[in-house]
Amino acid sequence: MPTQTLRYAYFPGCVAQGACRELYQSTGLLAQALGIELIELKKAACCGSGTYKEDSQLLEDAVNARNIALAESLNLPLLTHCSTCQGVLGHVDERLKEAQEGDPDYLAQVNGFLAKEHCSPYRGTTEVKHLLWALVGDYGLDALEERVTRQLSGLRCAAFYGCYLLRAQKSIPFDNPFQPESMEKVFQTVGATPVEYPGRTQCCGWPLSSYAPQESFKMAGKHLQDAIAAGADCLVTPCPLCHLNLDSRQPEVEKVTGKTLKLPVLHLSQLVALALGIEPQQLGLERHVVSTQPVLEKLGL
């Protein structure tokens, strides 16, 4: 285990507190099982999922500077379990840290908006970190392996990184944005078998779903079909928006593709929590649109 208790300012995001409540549930249980302390940022606002900048880059920066400043006020790194939140918050953090040196007037403008709302200023003193990076980089895979009580042997897992986690920022820790391995290393650590397939680092199609659903569902369908063809028992994603397009909308995807899919899609926190011995009924697996029962049967649960 880490030599000291890991503590994070926890940014759960919107989707995990609504449509993917099971992600919020499983992240809390996972952190508890690993002895990680999460201090939830209850005053945080939606990161915008990349939509704020369509109207105003300043709006996106000001809203998320405030979110980051909430973590800074606790002297803690900001932890998210959403790839989209990581991409938006992480990119804003990079941009504002660059502005400290290259464009201080812009940063002063951002902090001026925060001051008007009686918010703490952005200081650039912390970092934005996805749960995946926290597990791999802070907790460590060796320490994680020591906590595994239920080997997920025989379960073939296909990672779906998506795009925001890997390529929204100029640099990411612990991985290669074009040939990532961190999720596969987590799978191996908990005893599961990683499955390689072409679409694991591509977009799930969610950003298109509101105005071009047919194209969105075709994208999701291709990824699901490729994972099935590669022998996956399930898809595992670190992003609740990807989960919505790949799981919640899988029946619609089936209609568009004309294929029967029925591939379970798990949140990363659910998969790791299962390996730590947490019971399936505690993890909200029954909330999924595509039944997760085949996964549980494969594990003898």
Brief write-up:
This protein is an alpha/beta fold and 301 residues long.
Notes on the structure:
With 301 residues, the chain is an alpha/beta fold. The protein has helices at residues 21-34, 52-55, 57-72, 83-102, 104-116, 131-147, 164-167, 182-189, 213-229, 240-248, 250-257, 268-275, 293-298, and strands spanning 7-11, 37-40, 78-80, 128-130, 156-159, 193-195, 234-237, 265-267. The strands form two sheets. A four-stranded parallel β-sheet has the order 2-1-3-4, with helices on both faces. The chain has a four-stranded parallel β-sheet with strand order 6-5-7-8, with helices on both faces. The chain starts with 6 loop residues before the first strand and ends with a helix. The relative contact order is 0.15.
Radius of gyration: 19 Å
Q: pLDDT average, as an integer?
A: 95
| Number of beta-strand segments | 8
- Residue share in helices? 40-55%
Given the helix and strand composition, which structural class is it? alpha/beta
Keyword list:
single chain; four-stranded parallel beta sheet; alpha/beta; 301 residues; 13 helices
List the helices and strands and how they pair.
Layout: E1 7-11, H1 21-34, E2 37-40, H2 52-55, H3 57-72, E3 78-80, H4 83-102, H5 104-116, E4 128-130, H6 131-147, E5 156-159, H7 164-167, H8 182-189, E6 193-195, H9 213-229, E7 234-237, H10 240-248, H11 250-257, E8 265-267, H12 268-275, H13 293-298
Parallel strand pairs: 1-2, 1-3, 3-4, 5-6, 5-7, 7-8
Helix pairs in contact: 1-12, 3-4, 3-5, 4-5, 6-8, 9-11
